[in-house]
Amino acid sequence: MHVDGFRFDEGTVLARNLAGQPDSYAHVIWDIELSETLEDTKLIAEAWDAGGDYEIGHFPGFRWAEWNGRFRDDVRGFVRGDSGLAGAVATRMLGSSDLYQWSRHAPVNSINFVTCHDGFTLNDLVSYNQKHNEANGEGNRDGNDDNLSWNCGAEGPTDDAAIDSLRERQIRNLTAIQMLSFGVPMITAGDEMRRTQQGNNNAYCQDNEISWIDWSLADTNEDMVEFFRRIIAFRLTHDCLRPCDWHQGAPNARGSAEVHWHGRRLDEPDWSADSRTIAYTLGGVGGQPDVHVMVNMHWEGADFALPTGREWRRALDTAIAGRDAVSPPGAEPAIDGDHYLVTSRSVVVLIGT
Question: Taking a C-beta distance cutoff of 8 angstroms, is the pair 127, 167 a contact?
C-alpha cells in the first residue's frame, strides 16, 4: 500500500506492564522492533502519554525514532526570545546528544519538529499569544494553555505590515533552526504556505475551514513556499547537517573540526543565562564547504566575528524577506571583512572553503 511507516500516538502506552508501570521490555514494542516483516518500516513514537509517562530518550528499542518534544519546546521558547535557552538549543541543533547518545541511539532517532497536527500551526504560533478554541464548544477550556507562542505585537490577523514582516521572519527562523539541526525534520502540512486555524490549537473536531488546507495560500504566500523549497535543498546539499552518528572529533581535509563553537567572539561561546546568541562552524564532508551558523534571537542586532582562513559566502539570512533569504546555489554573495552584523531575531548561515 506504499506505506513508509507508522507513528504511534501516545506510544508509551505500549511500554507499560499490566500494572500500568513503564516497562523497558514491553513485548509489543520489541516484537515490532525485531519483526522481519517490518524491518524496512519506519517506526516513530510519540514518547509520552496521558498518564504522565514521558520517555523522550528512554523509549525502548533501537529502531524507534521519537517525536522530540524537548526540541519543540526549547526552540519555540528561544525564538520567542526567552532567556536561559542558548545552551539547550545548541544541544538540540546538534542532535540532542543528552537525550540519545547515552542510550546508544543516533541523531536520526530524533524527530525534530516545531509544530504537528496537535496545537498551533506555524503561522498561528507567531500570530497568537493565547489559544482561541471557542468554536470547539467547550468554552475555550480544551487544548493546551502553554504554547510558547508570541503574536509579534497583535493578536491574530493584522494589517500592520511591520508586524506581519516580523511574523514571516519568525517563521523563517523556526524553520531554519529545524533544517540546520541534526536528526529528522518534520514539517506540518500547510506550514510552508502559512496555513492558519484562526488560533484554534485543538481543531481535531472541526471538519470545516478551520482545519482544512486552503491550497490558494500556496499562491498567496509563494515566497514562503519557495523559502521552504530552498532551505530543504540546502540541507540536502550539505552532508555535515545530516550525520549518521555522533561526532568523533576527526577534522576534515582542510583541518576544520567537525564542530567548533564560537560566540559573538571567536572561540568564546556564551552559555550564560542572558545569552540569546549561538555560533558554531561545522566542517564540510567529502570536500563540501564548511558551514558557519550564527543565531541571534535578541531584539537588538549583534556583530559576530568570522573564523579566519576561509572565503565566506552567504547562504542564508532570515532577515532578508521572502525567498531571497536563501541564496541560490552558486550565487551566494561573498562576505567582505572579518565580521557579520546579524540582525535582531535572525539566523545567518555562511559557507566557506
Answer: yes
- Within a domain: residue 242? no
Give CA separation, 310 vs 58, 255, 258, 296, 307, in Å: 41, 11, 16, 22, 7
Task: Show the beta-strand stretches assigned E in the chain.
Answer: 5-8, 42-45, 65-67, 110-113, 184-186, 259-262, 277-282, 290-296, 302-305, 312-317, 339-342, 346-352
The three grid cell numbers given for residue 259, joined into one nine-digit string: 564542530
Q: CATH number of the domain that 290 lies in? A: 2.60.40.1180
Domain at 132, CATH number? 3.20.20.80
Specify the pTM.
0.96
Residues 321 and 204 both lie in one domain:
no
- List, by residue number, the catalytic residues: 9, 46
Specify whether 22 is located in the same domain as 50.
yes
Residue 1: band (very low, low, confident or very high) from pLDDT cuts 50, 70, 90: confident
C-alpha cell read off for 265: 567572539
| Cell 564540510, located at residue | 284
pLDDT of amino acid 343: 98
SS3 111: strand
Q: What pLDDT digit, counting tens, does each position of 181-228 carry?
A: 999 999 999 999 999 999 999 999 999 999 999 999 999 999 999 999
- Closest CA relative to residue 281, chosen from 79, 98, 97, 94: 94
Instruction: Dig out the grid coordinates for 221 from the structure.
Output: 504566500
